[in-house]
Amino acid sequence: MKEIIIATKNPGKAREFKRVFNDQDFILKTLLDFPDFPEILENGTTFEENATLKAHAVMERFSLPTIADDSGLQVDALYGQPGIYSARYAGDHNDAANNAKLLSELGGVPREKRTARFVSTLVFANPKNEHDLIVEGEVKGLIADFPEGDDGFGYDPLFYIPELDKTMAQLSVDQKNQISHRGHAIEKLEKQWQDWINW
Ligand SMILES: O=P(O)(O)OP(=O)(O)OP(=O)(O)OC[C@H]1O[C@@H](n2cnc3c(O)ncnc32)[C@H](O)[C@@H]1O
Ligand SMILES: [Mg+2]
What we know:
Blueprint: E1 2-6, H1 11-20, E2 26-30, H2 47-62, E3 66-75, H3 95-105, E4 115-125, E5 133-143, E6 159-161, E7 166-167, H4 173-179, H5 181-196
Helix pairs in contact: 1-4, 4-5
Bound molecules: inosine 5'-triphosphate and magnesium ion.
């Protein structure tokens, strides 16, 4: 059976990928299946650089086709921050602390100026392909005044989608995948990867 690895240790991302890439003719693994895999230094300056670092570190270790996601939240009133630093905005990788810091940075900023977007860059690397397949997705929303919803991960409880009158954390995985940055990027990947890959 063919195998593909998703180079993530984030259980929320893993769940979203698995939801789309299920029931196909390959086995999908993530780094959660390899808990001893060392931390990958994400010291690039763009989402694409960081996704490339992750995809190649994992592809080289396992010699298997590997997809990495680097993603983050860009808030207009904060000049695009936290951006590539989204995971460790408040210091260590702690969703509650990150959300608290975001709310405090936006204290007093009115609704119409709380515009933001989630961005996801996916890099698909394969030992038998010379060039990576790279796609991007985004979704626009507003940063809410307080967290709502228990689903999802990261900044989802604060990411409000006006068209749905819900935060991202109030959506099921399927609903999130239909509208999210990662969902859009995965959709693009799905259209291209089978023609691209040399198994
Ligand atoms: O690097 P991996 O192992 O994939 O997991 P990570 O959580 O460290 O992932 P990133 O380095 O790409 O950092 C992205 C951060 O941006 C935030 N983020 C990205 N996508 C999100 C989403 O769909 N919902 C909520 N927050 C998200 C969240 O805080 C993530 O930790
Ligand atoms: Mg990371």
